[in-house]
Amino acid sequence: MEAYILGFCMRGMHINRNETDPTIKEENGCAHSAPITALNYHPAYQTKAQDFSKLFLTSSMDWSMKLWDSNDLKSPLLSFDTASDYILDLHWNPMVPHMFGCSDADGYVDIWDVLKDREIPRVHYLVEAKKGLCKMKWSPDAKKIAVGSTSGAISLLQVDKEYTQSSALNDDCVNLDRMFKGIQGKE
């Protein structure tokens, strides 16, 4: 069994090798041009044909987010570069495999749907103006997003039904898998 240990440095992402365990492989990649603020692996969905467990998102103080395949850290699968300030946290939607949310230092929560648009978020919602949202997390049923701000406030956002459930989970997973294979040139 191969094991990977992820670590972070000020200039990007790197994977540390454990000298005492030869099963751990080292891989390096320049992830961002500023400190990384969050990393989130794609959740495991109950489908037999697709495995998204090697995909993860990173966010950074370089105002970007990137989607990575942990089997190949040479370059990201996708880059999301439309933010107007630091991206402080991000998480995959626990119910919809092609959606994730992020929070930024300007007080916004964004919801992205990579199957519908990879250029702009589907939702761009101001929670608290000019107050950084340093933490965000979906509820297990994806009906709420909790955010914590730099001012010490906690906000609980009600999420529209459109973003809380997959209309056809298996179809969504197949389409997402097809999109990733297309990006990787495997289709």
The number of distinct helices, counting runs of at least 4 residues, comes to 1
Query: What composes the largest sheet?
Result: 4 strands, antiparallel
CATH class: Mainly Beta
Q: Show unreliable segments.
A: 1-15
Q: What is the name of the CATH superfamily?
A: YVTN repeat-like/Quinoprotein amine dehydrogenase
Report the mean per-residue pLDDT as an integer.
Answer: 83
Secondary-structure element string? EEEEEEEEEEEEEEH
Structural class: mainly beta
Query: What is the helical fraction, as a range of percent?
Result: under 10%
What is CATH's topology name? Methylamine Dehydrogenase, Chain H
Rg computed from alpha carbons, rounded to a whole number of angstroms: 17 Å
Count of all domains: 1
Shape: globular
> What portion of the residues fall into strands of 2 or more residues?
35-45%
Distance between the termini: 28 Å
The side-by-side strand order for the widest beta sheet comes to 4-5-6-7
The CATH architecture assignment turns out to be: 7 Propeller
Could you characterize the architecture of this molecule?
The chain is mostly beta strands and 187 residues long. It is built from one helix and 14 strands; from the N terminus they run E-E-E-E-E-E-E-E-E-E-E-E-E-E-H. The strands form four sheets. Strands 4-5-6-7 form a four-stranded antiparallel β-sheet, with no helix packed on it. Strands 8-9-10-11 form a four-stranded antiparallel β-sheet, with no helix packed on it. The protein has a three-stranded antiparallel β-sheet with strand order 1-2-3, with no helix packed on it. A hairpin with a 6-residue loop joins strand 8 (87-92) and strand 9.
